[in-house]
Amino acid sequence: MTEQSLLNPDRKPTLAGVERAAEKISAILPRTPLLPLEIDGQIIWCKAEPLQPIGAFKIRGGWHRLTDLDEMQRRSGVVAFSSGNHAQGVAWAAKKLGIPATIVMPEDAPATKMANTRALGASVVTYDRMTGSREQLAEELAAKTGATVVPSFDDPWIVEGQGSCGIELREQIIEQTGNAPDQIVACCGGGGLAAGIALSNPDSEVMVAEPEGWDDMRRSLELGRIVPVEDNPPATRCDALQTLEVAPITFDILARRGVTGVAITPREVEHAMRLAFERLHLCVEPGGAVALAAIVSGKVSATPETVVTLSGGNVDRQLFAEILTG
Fold first, then answer.
1. H helices of the chain, where?
2. How far apart are the first and last CA of the chain?
3. For 218-256, how does the pLDDT look when each residue is reduced to its tens digit (9 = 90+)?
4. DSSP letter assigned to residue 239
5. Cβ pair 127, 90 in contact under 8 A
6. Measured between alpha carbons, how far is 152 from 309 in angstroms, rounded to an integer?
7. Cβ–Cβ under 8 Å, residues 120 and 95
8. Nearest to 191 by CA among 136, 114, 261
9. DSSP secondary-structure letter at 181?
C-alpha cells in the first residue's frame, strides 16, 4: 500500500494499517499487561488498558490518527466527540504533538473524564446526549476553523489504532502459553476496538459485549444490517458504550468475521468491576468491565486461551466506591 493510499480518508482499515499503528504506538508507550485470572477453574487473560496514561485504550487510535496529519492540518487543529475516553486519547495526542484540540462531550459525561480532558489542554463544548447531534456539532465547529474531525470509531485510523491492542495481546498470550488466543471478548460501543482486534487476530473467534439496552451492535450483527439503539434506552453507567448507532466501517468488519455479541446487565457489570478490583487490583470503569462480565456471568464460556479486554478505568471516585461496597 502506497503512502498516498494510507492517507486517504475514504480507505478501509487493513491489517497492514494495524501493524503500522502498533509500530508507532510501541515507540511511545509500553505494552499494557496481560493478566491471568482464574474463573471457575479456567484461566482467562485480561488486557489491562486502564493502565494507559489516559486510563483507556483510546489513546491508541488518537495517536495513530493525529500523527498522520500533515503540517497544515496540525496547525488547523482537530475536533473530536466523545463521552470521555476518546476525548482524552485525542487530547493527549494533541498536547504531545502541539495540535489545538476541541472536544464535543455530552453534558452528563463523568466529571472525571471532562476534567481530565480539560487538564490535557483541550477545549470542551457540551451537548445534550439524547437531543443533540455530536457529529453535526463537531462538523460545524470544524468548518469554522478548518480543523480535522476525528470520530470516535467511524474512521480507518481509529480502527487500526485500536487494533494495536490486538497485536499486543496476541504477542503476549503466545509468550505466556505458546498459543495464540482462540477467543477474544471485546467491550463494544461503536465497535472500533472490536473491529481492530478482529483485523489483528484473523484466526481467533471474536465476540462483543455491550450494556443491556445499548446492544445495537449485537442486534445489528444478528439481523445482518445496522439498526440503532431502540427508543427510550435505559439509563446505564456504561457511558463509554452509549453509541446510538454503529458505523458501516466497524459493522462490516465484524459482520464479515461472523462476530456475535451478548448484552450485559448492570448487576453483572458491577460484579465484574468488584472482581477486577479484588483479584487484579485494578480500577475498571463500567463500560470497561462488560467483556469480563460476559465471562463471569456465564454468557460466554471460557476457552483455553480466552482474552478479555478491560478497556478503561476512568470512573468517578464516588461511583466506584458505591459499586465496590454495593
1. 3-6, 15-26, 59-67, 71-76, 85-97, 111-119, 134-145, 156-177, 192-200, 216-223, 248-256, 266-280, 290-296, 317-325
2. 52
3. 999 999 999 999 999 999 999 999 999 999 999 999 999
4. G
5. no
6. 18
7. yes
8. 261
9. -
Nearest to 130 by CA among 239, 40, 244, 48: 244
* Cα–Cα distance for residue pair 283/52, rounded to 1 Å: 12
Sign of CA dihedral 151, 287, 114, 61: negative
Q: What is the pTM of this model?
A: 0.94
Burial pattern 219-232, b for ≥16 Cβ within 10 A else e, equals bbbeeeebbebeee
Angle between helix axes 248-256 and 192-200 (nearest 10 degrees) is 40
Q: Which residue has the cell 502541539?
A: 98
Q: What is the predicted pLDDT for the residue at 153?
A: 93
Distance, in Å, from the CA atom of 91 to the CA atom of 118, rounded to the nearest integer, reads 8
**Residues with Cβ < 8 Å from 179, sequence gap 6 or more?**
173, 304, 305
DSSP string, 250-283: HHHHHHHTT-EEEEE-HHHHHHHHHHHHHHH---
Cell of residue 282, nine digits? 485494578
Please choose, from the candidates 204, 269, 261, the residue with its C-alpha nearest in 3D space to the C-alpha of residue 236.
269
Share of the chain above pLDDT 90, in %: 88
